[in-house]
Amino acid sequence: MNPCPTHIENSVLNATARFPTDADSHHHYFQLQCNCGERAFTLFVSNCRSVRAECSDCARPLLVYDLALYPAACKPKGAELYVAMEVPEAPSPVFVAYEYGELDEDQEFNADDITWCQVFVEHSAGDILKVFDDETA
Ligand SMILES: [Zn+2]
Question: What is the pTM of this model?
Protein backbone atom coordinates (compact mmCIF):
# COMPACT_ATOMS: atom_id res chain seq x y z
CA MET A 1 0.00 0.00 0.00
CA ASN A 2 1.29 3.45 -0.92
CA PRO A 3 -1.34 5.87 0.42
CA CYS A 4 -1.60 9.60 -0.15
CA PRO A 5 -4.24 12.21 0.74
CA THR A 6 -7.39 11.92 -1.39
CA HIS A 7 -7.05 15.48 -2.77
CA ILE A 8 -3.94 14.41 -4.72
CA GLU A 9 -4.54 10.70 -5.37
CA ASN A 10 -5.40 11.10 -9.06
CA SER A 11 -2.36 13.23 -9.85
CA VAL A 12 0.60 11.27 -8.49
CA LEU A 13 2.93 8.48 -9.54
CA ASN A 14 4.69 6.20 -7.07
CA ALA A 15 8.23 7.56 -6.53
CA THR A 16 9.46 5.07 -3.92
CA ALA A 17 12.38 4.14 -6.21
CA ARG A 18 13.71 7.73 -6.15
CA PHE A 19 13.84 7.75 -2.32
CA PRO A 20 15.01 4.22 -1.54
CA THR A 21 16.52 4.98 1.89
CA ASP A 22 13.66 7.21 3.14
CA ALA A 23 10.53 5.42 1.91
CA ASP A 24 9.05 2.99 4.43
CA SER A 25 5.63 1.93 5.73
CA HIS A 26 5.06 5.37 7.30
CA HIS A 27 6.68 7.56 4.60
CA HIS A 28 5.27 7.54 1.07
CA TYR A 29 6.90 9.29 -1.88
CA PHE A 30 5.25 10.44 -5.10
CA GLN A 31 5.93 12.42 -8.23
CA LEU A 32 3.28 14.87 -9.38
CA GLN A 33 1.78 14.27 -12.78
CA CYS A 34 -1.01 16.40 -14.20
CA ASN A 35 -4.04 14.73 -15.78
CA CYS A 36 -2.74 16.12 -19.11
CA GLY A 37 0.46 14.03 -18.67
CA GLU A 38 2.79 16.94 -17.88
CA ARG A 39 5.29 16.53 -15.01
CA ALA A 40 6.77 20.05 -14.77
CA PHE A 41 5.14 22.40 -12.29
CA THR A 42 5.51 25.82 -10.74
CA LEU A 43 5.03 25.78 -6.95
CA PHE A 44 3.17 28.27 -4.77
CA VAL A 45 3.10 28.46 -0.98
CA SER A 46 0.56 30.31 1.17
CA ASN A 47 0.69 32.22 4.45
CA CYS A 48 -1.39 29.31 5.87
CA ARG A 49 1.35 26.78 4.97
CA SER A 50 -0.57 25.38 1.98
CA VAL A 51 1.27 24.28 -1.16
CA ARG A 52 -0.14 24.36 -4.66
CA ALA A 53 1.45 23.26 -7.94
CA GLU A 54 0.49 24.65 -11.31
CA CYS A 55 0.95 22.54 -14.44
CA SER A 56 3.41 24.13 -16.86
CA ASP A 57 1.41 22.89 -19.83
CA CYS A 58 -2.32 23.29 -19.13
CA ALA A 59 -2.05 25.56 -16.03
CA ARG A 60 -4.30 23.26 -14.01
CA PRO A 61 -3.73 23.82 -10.27
CA LEU A 62 -3.00 20.84 -8.01
CA LEU A 63 -3.38 21.07 -4.26
CA VAL A 64 -0.32 19.44 -2.70
CA TYR A 65 -0.79 20.32 0.98
CA ASP A 66 -3.61 22.04 2.84
CA LEU A 67 -4.04 21.84 6.61
CA ALA A 68 -7.84 22.24 6.24
CA LEU A 69 -8.04 18.71 4.80
CA TYR A 70 -6.31 16.60 7.47
CA PRO A 71 -8.21 15.46 10.57
CA ALA A 72 -5.36 16.04 13.03
CA ALA A 73 -4.32 19.39 11.61
CA CYS A 74 -5.40 22.91 12.48
CA LYS A 75 -5.24 25.48 9.72
CA PRO A 76 -4.24 29.05 10.61
CA LYS A 77 -7.19 31.42 10.32
CA GLY A 78 -7.46 34.39 8.01
CA ALA A 79 -7.34 35.14 4.31
CA GLU A 80 -5.08 32.80 2.38
CA LEU A 81 -2.55 34.34 0.02
CA TYR A 82 -0.19 32.38 -2.23
CA VAL A 83 3.20 33.48 -3.51
CA ALA A 84 5.56 31.66 -5.87
CA MET A 85 7.89 29.37 -3.95
CA GLU A 86 11.59 30.17 -4.21
CA VAL A 87 13.16 27.33 -6.15
CA PRO A 88 16.32 27.21 -8.30
CA GLU A 89 14.49 26.23 -11.48
CA ALA A 90 10.81 26.56 -12.36
CA PRO A 91 8.88 24.87 -13.72
CA SER A 92 10.43 21.59 -12.61
CA PRO A 93 9.50 18.01 -11.70
CA VAL A 94 7.99 17.90 -8.20
CA PHE A 95 8.14 15.10 -5.65
CA VAL A 96 6.16 14.93 -2.44
CA ALA A 97 6.38 12.82 0.71
CA TYR A 98 3.51 12.19 3.11
CA GLU A 99 4.04 10.74 6.56
CA TYR A 100 1.48 8.69 8.51
CA GLY A 101 1.70 8.04 12.25
CA GLU A 102 1.36 4.74 14.06
CA LEU A 103 -2.29 3.66 14.40
CA ASP A 104 -3.83 2.76 17.74
CA GLU A 105 -5.38 -0.71 17.86
CA ASP A 106 -8.95 0.61 17.59
CA GLN A 107 -8.09 3.12 14.84
CA GLU A 108 -8.87 2.64 11.18
CA PHE A 109 -6.43 3.87 8.56
CA ASN A 110 -7.43 7.19 6.98
CA ALA A 111 -5.47 8.28 3.91
CA ASP A 112 -6.11 11.94 4.78
CA ASP A 113 -4.69 11.62 8.28
CA ILE A 114 -1.13 12.64 7.45
CA THR A 115 1.33 13.88 10.06
CA TRP A 116 4.02 15.43 7.88
CA CYS A 117 4.59 16.67 4.33
CA GLN A 118 7.77 17.37 2.41
CA VAL A 119 8.02 18.76 -1.12
CA PHE A 120 11.03 18.39 -3.42
CA VAL A 121 12.01 19.68 -6.85
CA GLU A 122 14.37 18.02 -9.28
CA HIS A 123 17.08 20.11 -10.95
CA SER A 124 17.77 19.63 -14.62
CA ALA A 125 21.09 18.07 -13.49
CA GLY A 126 19.06 15.34 -11.78
CA ASP A 127 19.58 16.10 -8.11
CA ILE A 128 16.63 16.53 -5.78
CA LEU A 129 16.24 19.48 -3.44
CA LYS A 130 13.81 19.79 -0.52
CA VAL A 131 11.82 23.04 -0.76
CA PHE A 132 9.05 22.57 1.84
CA ASP A 133 8.85 20.71 5.14
CA ASP A 134 5.86 20.91 7.48
CA GLU A 135 4.48 18.88 10.36
CA THR A 136 0.67 18.95 10.40
CA ALA A 137 0.11 19.10 14.15
ZN1 LIG B 1 -1.61 19.81 -17.25
Answer: 0.95
